[in-house]
User: Fold these one by one.
Assistant:
Number 1:
Amino acid sequence: MIPLLAAVVLLAAETSAGQPKPPLTHVAAPGPAQADTVKVGGDLYVLHCLSCHGDRLQGTPQAPPLTNAGAASVDFQLSTGRMPLEVPGTEPMRGPPSFPRGQIDAIVAYVVTHGGKGADIPQVHSSPDLTRGRKIFEENCQACHGATGTGAVAGFGWLAPALLQSTPLQTAEAVRTGPGIMPKFDAHVIPQADLDALAAYVDSLHHPDDRGGYSLASAGPVGEGIVAWIVGLGVTVLLMFAVGETLRRS
Amino acid sequence: MIRRLVYALDDRLGTAPFLRHALRKAFPDHWSFMLGEVALYCFLFILASGTYLTFFFHPSAHHVVYHSNSVPSLNGRSMSDAYASVLRISFETRAGLLIRQAHHWCALVFAAAIVVHMARVFFTGAFRKPRDLNWIVGLTLLLLVMGDGFTGYSLPDDQLSGAGLRIADSIALAIPVIGSWFAYLFFGGGYPSPEITNRLYAIHILFIPLALGALIALHLAILWRQKHTQFPGRGKREDNVTGSPLWPAYTVKSLALMAATFGVLLLLGGLVEINPVWLYGPYDPWTVASPAQPDWYVGWLDGALRVAPPWAIHLFGHTISALLWPGIVLPLGFFGALYAWPFAERRLTGDRAYHELLQLPWQNPLRTSFGVAALTFAGVLLLAASDDIQARLWSISVQQLAWFYRVAALVLPPVAAAIAWRICTELQARHTYEEDHPARVVLKRGSDGGFEEEPVATP
């Protein structure tokens, strides 16, 4: 316990100094006892979450209450590094998680036992049905996240993030909880088998099939237009100039 | 061998005098005169690569089930025959992907070459009488290439195709009075109609290429008859034409350019991915992909749609769609102004003479300013067409960007024109001054080997 507290104090000092938080990989994971886990989670909550979300998860003018944040939501926000926010009030962006797995589980346990009600961490099974997953993706996800999962604007300053690092579990959590301005899709809209297929398809987007050569797919026709002008016409005109001038002088 | 062939032809057709004349014909020496030739060779390339693709493409909206492991996430998916055949061209046809990509790259480079060629013709005043005729033919060629590009973009029936066609349908509907009838007639029913792929195919591979071929022939015939223009310089007058003979000098040069153009296009087709339709997915009318952009030559019109204010008019119980302004009035006005410019310039300057000698851009500030304004306007709109990608890149609001481009499209063209005008008049003043004050110096070498300047009376 002492090394954990020491680390926590150290972390608090660093946070208050405004420095980036190093991942606390040197801290031992909490023991198997549930009560201990909640206790550790409570300590972490006090240090990293309380100032914005309040001492009873009731929220503050800076941040929403967590009383409707279930395990899936908290786990998604922490495991994708969106929470805790470096600057309160800004749009949460994906980044390296601030806590190791064990501490995330502890914070999740604390929030759930202290009144956070919402979707539990969803089940995801591996699915071979990429065709089904792609169909679900095209109908529900690509309008904001882009056909190739590269992310796109969602209007009024909001960005739908890229999905190129999303693990199957995180995909499922986002679908079930609807983080940010994303809508929530429950089991009536996307049943479990479809969710599995969707998570597998999103996972397959991490390695796009760029058999056509050097990929400009994330910029689509915009990148193609730039290449056509600079490389296509540009190189041709340079060659034309070279040929024209060489033959003129000879 | 060639000699015998020529003799044989001459015996039957009497072609020797024509050939002797034609092979001695003067072709221009300045490299910038070959821009149009890049476009010509792009036409040949796109014709050849397109012919290959027609062997394998199915212009049909009929739905089929795709069974192939080439794209695992599409295996077993119901899709249009057109899209499935594009997948087969890409993955199961020998050289299919290479030719398909090179064909698409060629379309982009073709249009770019035409624009640069036209800019050369415009800013040097090469379009003046008697070549105003060929300016009209050339501008029509650009419009045809844009049309062929758009129909080609629409054929694979992927998500971008579908989104583009949906926009085209909306613009057709926005034509006042006849819009609904016209759109139904053209699309063969409400959108999306099973007829449209067929019709676009006929337009893409038959009607427009035929019109392009005929107009290119006319373009070259007029050029052959009128001969090329030339930059002012030693030995170049209004009543002569100088250059290298077609054979052998210009033929070698031109064939080298053809090889360069084909080489660049095939390298691009083999090395750089373009329009990966298997990543975009087949089109379903109820889905939409984002970001979605057209090819660059249609991009400026897409940009206009994005930033134009939503001004719909309600008249006598009818609605005139807000798309009328950016979708119809703007392109008509823009190309109308380009068609009319040679005649407008004649009227504005009162210069109705024949011109064989070119002008440099600074010699005609009015024309240069107009051209710069038009290019700036289209350029701003083209940038506006990728506002969503820029918003993501720079993490700013896409609405703010739309406002920025809305203002920029109106403000930047006059500003650019004013700057161009200023530069032109400054250059003009300098040239006038130098003509009036030629800096002539006579150096005299003395017996000691040194030089001495002798004052010369200026005239």
Number 2:
Amino acid sequence: MAPALGIMGLFFAGPIIWSVYIAFTNKALTGVGAQHPKWVGFANFTQAFHDPLFIHSLVLTAIFVIGSAIIGQNTLGFLIALLERGKNSFVTRALNTFIIAAWVMPEIVAGFCWYAYLYQGGTLDTFLQHFGLSQDWLYTTPMLAIIIANIWRGTAFSMLVYSAGLSDVPAELLEAAKVDGASQFSLLRRVIIPLLRRSIVTNLMLITLQTLASFTLIFVLTAGGPGEASQTTPLYIYQQALQLYDISYGTAMCIVLLLIGALFSVVYIKLIRVEEVG
Amino acid sequence: MIGVLSSGERRAARSNERPRSRFRITSPRIMAARVSAYGVLALVAVFFIAPLLWLVLSAFEPAASVGSAAPLVLSFSNFAKVLNWTTTYKPLINSAILSGSTAIITVVASLFAAYPLSRYQMRFRRPFLYTIVFSTGLPITAILVPVYSMFARFNLVDNMLAVILFMTATSLPFGIWLMKGFMDGVPLELEQAAWVDGATWLGSLRRIVAPLMLPGIMVITIFTFVSQWGNFFVPFILLETQSKFPASVSIYTFFSQYGLVDYGQLAAFSILYTLPAVGLWVVAGRFLKGTFTFAGAVKG
């Protein structure tokens, strides 16, 4: 146990405890606060919740998580798993390869792909020029751009969770419902979705946690811009703490983000308690 | 035997025997459903393949611009241009050092941590497991700023070993969790036999448990390696010297320096950087199929 505990204690728990200390001081990387940080109480937190840009970033993060993870990846992953159910043709296997490749490739390469795709003069733009729709999608619709790119990036996870879940749905049950005259839609609503409830909740929780902390994809695509139009909380924290060197303020915002993550994480633990931990 | 079956079972038996003909008679409604299912899947395929086109087309095109039209000739000139020490080899070696060391330390440490969690009843077992699962959910991005200030305070910025240890710390919770899961699948009986023969817990871990869960260990190694191979934010923040940059950071520097000019080279570099991750993932899939076969070891 000791090596694992030591590493996690020093490099995981350590920074979290350190962050709580820093967040209550005026530590900065340059200037007076750099040499002699002073205790400032809740000032950093008060500042955060009166900072319109921080509130704005939280709203954008919520839009990003709901749009790309909860609605996008979750629905698309479920749809693909459902449509591919029982099919194991060359077509579905090839399709899955592409979906999983998008998820496995380094995030920064995924960012380049979407940059080259959406940029003015990019692949999509070259195609849309024939219809007179030429524009820089990263500039005109930055939030939509990062949401769709992240759907592309992360759908594989939801798809894998749901195809595993669907393969556990007993075929007899579906047959029985069909014999009783259930339509495709009521089969989905009354049999499949209730049986998959656990997979659905677990999946939603995990993709929310992953998307909440998303940085690289947005950083490559829009860098939070234009202006602050797509500046989600991780990007705003990066700007404040590591570009403007206000470490203590950045850390206070980190703690807020960490607490939001912790909240979801606690819900997640409650959900998996029953079987796995035992 | 036939007489024993009810009419329903007989019908089922007959339908199973029915040869699968190429000319199946399908009702129009089912046909329509099948066609629309493939229609939707085709749209999904377009959505997933289109952004990848740039990567492949520009990489093999002699002089690529962003909106590359299909190349008429396959050209490896972009690859030839990036295949040199500073652009490709050194960053890829750095990536391999960072993610390789992280993977090895993670696996060894989680093997030792998972053993008591899987084998002994301890008072702090449950709270510890809860903490582990809880930490897997925490957004790592959110602790990077305090990590940076801590590294700055203790003079660890730009220190590869410290970066490796931080990456290990963030990989360990999930590593331990997976390791415990795989270890629970190794039957205790096999180990008890070794204990009777006088093996210590370390001996039985090394000679019995670890070899039996080798597929699981490979999966954790590859998973950790691949996720750190793609990690951009951590080395981007914690490393400063260009000669220490892994591929993720150096490719970003390349992009911000020549981004609009040399798309072909960026694409070629991206492919070289992506292939190991995708390749290892395929290998991991093979190993994963072999992990659920322990039951046979006890019965024999």
